């Protein structure tokens, strides 16, 4: 018996892969989804979804939201706290096991063949098909979507130029049960002074807290000691058992290096973390995984239906709609993480800047429109604090 040839194989059924598979199945394509763990499975992730994801997902996903976020509490090194709030949701908190299982259920409803607990060992591309090999067998498809994360086997197999840098993060889940925590309802904590070149966070869930640290500008330090100190001193953790920090890579956008690398070959596309489509400012990956999954599916459907000559439209969509946003976010990240105390004081003095940024998370602004509106105010505020810092230094 010959090997069955699918229209598409999706490797990895996280948010991006599951959404891409669903779109392909609904378009009438035969699709195999391969997930290396049994579902549902725990995923090391803060589980924060910016509210703009409402534009990409069907509204019934709201039943698995654990907390709706209307406020962000900013700190510098555990001190100098202030808060911005919004009447509309800024973000949603989910547990990845439930969220991913919901999206995979949507894929099953679309007729996708799903193999759980099956790790992909290698991927080979030929002129007429792509072959995917696992410990259980060989599968062929007209096209493959690599949605298998920061350590993507698809990327390693077919994109020899590599995908770029990955920064480090540590995250833990603390069980709080019904015990009140010293956080306002619907608020998260972001501390930009704890981690050199990065930030720390506290995200509330149902009966638990996700707490973690992440590095965005390389400082060559181990995040474990920083994580341990942050968890030990965080007021919201008072009385909780300290969770072990689980490491996870952050495959960030890396400027011109990222933009110079292919995201597709003749028959293979990379999405989400596998494509290093992670926001370089706060590390948001789920939104861009879903967005790039939708872009990939659209490009495959156009090619399969004969309305596009190849899959290059996917690279063009990413270059047009994602990379310009990341360029702005990367400039902001450099400023915030190089001058965290000045940046903290600046946004405290000019809360309107962060209200504008909340508009990015809500889908009301893009990074580009936000930057255009905020840059004059930010320049004047930054100049004020730089002058203030210099005067203080000379007066000692």
The portion of residues forming beta strands comes to 15-25%
Poorly predicted segments = 391-396
* CATH class categorisation of the largest domain: Alpha Beta
User: Might you state the CATH topology name of the largest domain?
Assistant: FAD/NAD(P)-binding domain
The ordered string of helix (H) and strand (E) elements is: EHEEEEEEHEEEEHEEEEHEHEHHHHHH
CATH superfamily heading of the largest domain: FAD/NAD(P)-binding domain
Rg calculated over all Cα atoms: 22 Å
Mean pLDDT: 91
Largest sheet: 7 strands, mixed
Distance between the termini: 83 Å
The total tally of domains equals 3
Q: List how many beta strands DSSP finds.
A: 17
Q: Number of helical segments?
A: 11
Helix content: 25-40%
In short:
The chain is an alpha/beta fold and 396 residues long. It is built from 11 helices and 17 strands.
Plain-language structure description:
With 396 residues, the protein is of the alpha/beta class. It has three domains: 5-47 and 95-164 and 253-321, FAD/NAD(P)-binding domain, CATH 3.50.50.60; 68-90 and 166-250, D-Amino Acid Oxidase, subunit A, domain 2 (D-Amino Acid Oxidase, Chain A, domain 2), CATH 3.30.9; 335-394, no CATH class. It starts with a strand and ends with a helix. Strands 1, 2, 8, 9, 10, 11 and 17 form a seven-stranded mixed β-sheet that branches. It has a seven-stranded mixed β-sheet with strand order 6-5-13-14-15-12-16, with helices on both faces. It has a three-stranded antiparallel β-sheet with strand order 3-7-4, with no helix packed on it. Helix content is 36%, strand content 24%.
